[in-house]
Amino acid sequence: MRTDPLALLDLDSLLDDEERATRDMVRRLVAERVRPEVADWYERGAAPVRQLAVACGERGLLGMHLRGYGCAGGSAVAYGLACFELEAGDSGVRSLVSVQGSLAMYAIWRYGSEEQKRRWLPGMAAGEWIGCFGLTEADHGSDPASMATRATPVDGGGWLLRGGKMWITNAPVADLAVVWARTPDGVSGFVVPLDRPGVGVREVTGKLSLRASATGELTFDDVLLEADALLPEARGLKAPLSCLTEARYGIVWGALGAAYDCLTATLRYAATRTQFGRPLAGFQLTQAKFADMAVELQKGFLLALHLGRLADAGRLRPAQVSAGKLNNVREALAIARQCRTILGANGVSGAYPLMRHANNLESVLTYEGTSEIHQLVLGQELTGESAFA
């Protein structure tokens, strides 16, 4: 590999010293703790999630864009670069950090009481406690407004929680869940310790994607919660959707990390793999593929960086995040698939990261809003007409 794909447009010059330092720190973490083992984690369908959480907590990566309560208070761009490097290792590792920081921790930080913040956030920032985010249900994926989970007030204060959540990242190893449920006042959020009587946790097995990530189902069979389990500032469906916007922003960057890892691995392979008496890198069709992929990667990086600058200026809107996720995940998946073709049969081998990234990106394409949902978000933004109903 003669030139790094992101060096063609000198994109590194657009970052400041602190942003580059964050990127380099996370890149070292991935090199030391993820790359040597991730192929085996994927093969076995298991990863040392708790150890990874502590390692990320020690480096200030959990809730790193939040301020106070043990959180690092980093910039949106620095957080995005961290997601890029984590997902270059594996989408499951970035998902661990995203769900912990941008979903579970953000929900408590943004909508919780001062007592809830002090109780939960420092331990979560350190990786001592793992959280998950219970919004999706088995029968209600893209339509969270139709959720069936309910929380009913009980005499003397408190709540009785009934229902279930599905496809919940971190659930099998989590200590607490932020659960969204219908109440007499509309959709509300609750902090639910997962050791409560009536809580059931089942790991989802047999996955062909995100195998280095812990995914589970949560069930709530008349779980009794104290009154202070309620997130007092979360009112209506806009609250969990705002959390999803936080997580989607990380995906805008993270998907590019997977694409970058595929492209750099393929460039190295093509430089040494000989066919018909010359390296694969010397063929016109191969170079055309590399050129197109490098252009899309750089365009995606510029888009992510622009959204990050908007976020740091307090001007990022949800529809803009939808544009970023729609484009960058779609293009990252296309890059992973194209890289696989250059490696031929070797592209499906676990010795190379291409098929693992491609399989992971199929899940990333779906979660935090499918491509179709983001197309409709943008369609509504452009036309003023909602096509959701």
Automatic annotation (TrEMBL):
<dbReference type="Pfam" id="PF00441">
    <property type="entry name" value="Acyl-CoA_dh_1"/>
</dbReference>
<dbReference type="GO" id="GO:0033539">
    <property type="term" value="P:fatty acid beta-oxidation using acyl-CoA dehydrogenase"/>
</dbReference>
<dbReference type="GO" id="GO:0004361">
    <property type="term" value="F:glutaryl-CoA dehydrogenase activity"/>
</dbReference>
<dbReference type="InterPro" id="IPR052033">
    <property type="entry name" value="Glutaryl-CoA_DH_mitochondrial"/>
</dbReference>
<dbReference type="InterPro" id="IPR013786">
    <property type="entry name" value="AcylCoA_DH/ox_N"/>
</dbReference>
<dbReference type="GO" id="GO:0050660">
    <property type="term" value="F:flavin adenine dinucleotide binding"/>
</dbReference>
<dbReference type="GO" id="GO:0000062">
    <property type="term" value="F:fatty-acyl-CoA binding"/>
</dbReference>
<dbReference type="GO" id="GO:0046949">
    <property type="term" value="P:fatty-acyl-CoA biosynthetic process"/>
</dbReference>
<keyword id="KW-0560">Oxidoreductase</keyword>
<protein>
    <submittedName>
        <fullName>Acyl-CoA dehydrogenase</fullName>
    </submittedName>
</protein>
<keyword id="KW-0285">Flavoprotein</keyword>
<keyword id="KW-0809">Transit peptide</keyword>
<keyword id="KW-0274">FAD</keyword>
<comment type="similarity">
    <text>Belongs to the acyl-CoA dehydrogenase family.</text>
</comment>
<feature type="domain" description="Acyl-CoA dehydrogenase/oxidase N-terminal">
    <location>
        <begin position="17"/>
        <end position="128"/>
    </location>
</feature>
<dbReference type="Pfam" id="PF02771">
    <property type="entry name" value="Acyl-CoA_dh_N"/>
</dbReference>
<dbReference type="InterPro" id="IPR006091">
    <property type="entry name" value="Acyl-CoA_Oxase/DH_mid-dom"/>
</dbReference>
<dbReference type="InterPro" id="IPR046373">
    <property type="entry name" value="Acyl-CoA_Oxase/DH_mid-dom_sf"/>
</dbReference>
<dbReference type="Pfam" id="PF02770">
    <property type="entry name" value="Acyl-CoA_dh_M"/>
</dbReference>
<dbReference type="InterPro" id="IPR009075">
    <property type="entry name" value="AcylCo_DH/oxidase_C"/>
</dbReference>
<dbReference type="InterPro" id="IPR037069">
    <property type="entry name" value="AcylCoA_DH/ox_N_sf"/>
</dbReference>
<feature type="domain" description="Acyl-CoA oxidase/dehydrogenase middle">
    <location>
        <begin position="132"/>
        <end position="223"/>
    </location>
</feature>
<dbReference type="InterPro" id="IPR036250">
    <property type="entry name" value="AcylCo_DH-like_C"/>
</dbReference>
<feature type="domain" description="Acyl-CoA dehydrogenase/oxidase C-terminal">
    <location>
        <begin position="235"/>
        <end position="381"/>
    </location>
</feature>
<dbReference type="InterPro" id="IPR009100">
    <property type="entry name" value="AcylCoA_DH/oxidase_NM_dom_sf"/>
</dbReference>
